[in-house]
Amino acid sequence: MAEAVAQKGKQMKQVLVSELDLTKIQGNGDFPCPNCGVTISPEDESEDVYTILEEKIRNDALEELVIQCNKCSSRIRLTGFPILKMENL
Ligand SMILES: [Zn+2]
User: Dihedral through CA 12, CA 56, CA 37, CA 44, nearest 10?
Assistant: First the structure.
């Protein structure tokens, strides 16, 4: 096709991005990578399993996080972070 020729040299790198709403996850927040199924724990800060690419903070609260799975290199956009409130005991 003519269009394919026109795009030659202007290669678009397609990266798979999945969206995940943390409010729909049961339990302690761990979830399987939508692509390869490896368990990703948001509390794991070792970055062995995933790498944080982007953080969106709003009013001192984490609103959105874009991570990359180190196993399959797919990207996952996490939303729905719980708003941490200071509770009076
Ligand atoms: Zn993966």
Answer: 130
57 alpha carbon to ligand 1 midpoint, in Å? Answer: 24
Contact 55, 42 (CB under 8 A): no
R_g of the chain computed on alpha carbons: 17
pLDDT in tens, 43-75: 788 989 999 999 999 888 889 999 999 999 999
Task: Note the pLDDT tens digit of each residue in 15-50.
Answer: 779 999 988 988 888 899 999 999 998 778 898 999
Report the predicted TM-score, pTM, of the whole model to 2 decimal places.
0.71
> Cα of 60 to ligand 1 centre, how many Å?
29
C-alpha 39 – ligand 1 centre gap (Å): 9
Q: Which two tokens stand for residue 32?
A: 């399987």
